[in-house]
Amino acid sequence: MKLYSIAVLLKTPEGKGKILASKNELASFGYFQRATVNEFMTFTSKILVERTATSSRASVKEQEYICHVFVRSDNLSGVVIADHEYPQRVAHTLISKVVEEFPEKCPKPQWSSVVENAVQYPELTDYLRKYQNPKEADAMTKIQSELDETKIILHNTIEAVLERGEKLDDLVEKSEGLSLQSKTFYKTAKKTNQCCVIL
Amino acid sequence: MADSRGPRLLMDLNNAFKRDPLIDEYDILPVVEPKHNRSPFILENHKLGVEAWAVKVLLKYSANRLIGWRSRSPTEKFIDPQDICNLSRAVLLFNPDNYTAWNIRKELIDSGALTLSDDLAFGALVLSKHPKSPETFIHRRWLFQQLLDHCLSSSSGSNSSCSAPAASNEEVLVNMEGIDVDVGAHPEVGIRLNGAFALESSRLLKSQTICELQVCTQAAEKYPCNYHAWSHRIWIIKHCLNCSLQVLVSELETTRSWTSNHVSDHSGFHFRQFLLRELHNKRSRLQSSSSKDFTSLLQAEMDFIIDLIYSYPNHEAMWYHRRFIFHELLKLDPTQKRTMQQMNTTNIEPAFNIHYNEPLGTQLISQEICNVESSKKSTSNELDQLLAKNYVRWLQSL
């Protein structure tokens, strides 16, 4: 089981996802794919936060990956990307912990003004490392009992999260966060039905 | 259409490997059309990237020439062995299913144009991109067989005690273990006739075997449920490490953390089942040599899998592993079963009645059913309930 990414986002009043702080673990991906995977993780985190209702949790399956998302009542959100073996409960516990802790790093009034992905949150690196072993990490967290797993909405694909009339291909095409190389990667991977990159 | 870019690309690829012989990973870059007038090969940090359009051209050119040479077409009659080696490399990097190309490499090894270690390194590179290519693993087994043959033939020449033709397989294995020990302890063996060569090839075999286990782990990591990687590991343990007790025990130890990190990987669990089965066959030697007793190993495995099942619900592979362990438990001798049962009774709720006048096997089964039923109550998950139910049904059918 692997944990690939943790991100703290803000769901802006316009309904856009804005990354405040994030950390990815890409060592298990091919050297030349890492930049693309990185971009797609950011892209996916954003579209999931944008399409998840305030104060709700969801886990979205995509091939062998699962993206866990939580949007808190004040629109501060967290996304964790893991593989399908990683326990859902631990992933959501980690999100809760990070979202809880985040205002200490960056107080609420600054959320909307701060530059994208510029908040210093060095502990994310530690979490990403420690939580690779969910059993060890789980023992440290105390909030686990508060989490009601039945309230997590499950989706079987990212397409299922999209709104009516939306298409993933169009979103990828229009995205400003994805480089030309990543877009070609997405298209060729889709054509050959490879599952080499997230999405 | 004959593509004139082919020879140029092949040359570029060969140069890339000449510039950096330590390339340990390669990948195809999503560049469908040649966009600029630069080489489509990118070499960075020991990683080689090849643009997709170039792969197509290069593969077609190299495969045509190689197969043309193989079928003795008049235009390809005379190719230097080094060029054949390079052509087969270009083909296999992007199409490792091409068994003819692997066979051509076998011939190159026989003729001495290619060394065993170089080809092992090349195969490891292919596996970094194609971690479950069966042809690559099969070819590696052939390479190891060559190494083993070298060791055996040269050691029988050097060591008088081994010169008698090995009657049974077991004797060959003992012989091999002897070589292993000799490497460090008795350098004077090397003075004997052929001894130096024996020493060298056994050393090579030893270091390559250790690397090979690493290669298997990497392939298993890259591709989930990688049957080919795990069965190759079994082959290596059987043929290059003689299933020695020490190896079996250490493998059981090292794959433990791997399986607990890959709870849905049936192939990983199957490998442990192989280890346990081998240890079962050698249980008397295990007891006498390391004072480890097989029953407690099996019990430890049972505790391990039960803990995993409850930590990571919803994965069927672990339940099948539990079935295997329980089935092994039933095969134990009555006295061992008795110790098993005593180890278990401590955590049985008194509400469950065990009939002690029944045969031991039946008692163990009802005990196991109780264990599952009592822990089933703590989970609300539907799939997990179903998996537990199936397991109980299987127990009842025993």
Structure description:
The complex is a heterodimer of chains A (199) and B (398). Chain A starts with a strand and ends in an 8-residue tail after the last helix. Chain A has helices at residues 34-50, 88-105, 123-130, 134-140, 168-174, 180-191; strands spanning 3-11, 17-24, 56-62, 65-71, 76-83, 152-155. Chain A has six helices and six strands. The model of chain A has no long low-confidence stretch (mean pLDDT 87). Chain A has a single domain (3-191), classed as 2-Layer Sandwich (Beta-Lactamase). Helices cover 35% and strands 22% of the residues of chain A. Chain A is globular. Chain A is α+β, with helices and mostly antiparallel strands. The longest helix of chain A has 18 residues, at 88-105. In chain A, a hairpin with a 5-residue loop joins strand 1 and strand 2 (17-24). Chain B is mainly α and 398 residues long. Chain B has a domain at 253-398. Helices cover 70% and strands 4% of the residues of chain B. Chain B has 17 helices and three strands. Chain B has helices spanning 5-19, 52-70, 81-94, 99-110, 116-129, 134-158, 169-185, 195-222, 227-239, 245-261, 266-281, 283-290, 294-311, 316-331, 334-345, 360-376, 382-397, and strands at 25-29, 41-44, 47-51. Chain B has a three-stranded mixed sheet with strand order 1-3-2. In chain B, a hairpin with a 2-residue loop joins strand 2 and strand 3. The longest helix of chain B is centred in the middle third of the chain and has 28 residues, at 195-222. Chain B is elongated and about 85 Å long. Mean pLDDT of chain B is 84; it is low at 159-193 and 348-352. Chain A binds chain B through residues 1, 28, 30-33, 64, 84-85, 87, 133-135, 181, 184-185, 187-189, and chain B through 25, 27, 29-32, 42, 44-45, 47, 49, 52, 221, 224, 261-264, 311-313, 315.
